[in-house]
Amino acid sequence: MDFPIVQRATPGRYLLRGLLRCGPCGELLIPSFSSNGRRYYGCPRRRCPRPWVPAEQTEQVVWEQVAARHGTAARDAPVEQRLAMLNAVLAEVRVGLRVADLEYRWR
Question: Between vectors from CA 48 to CA 43 and to CA 54, what angle results, nearest 5°?
Answer without folding.
Answer: 40
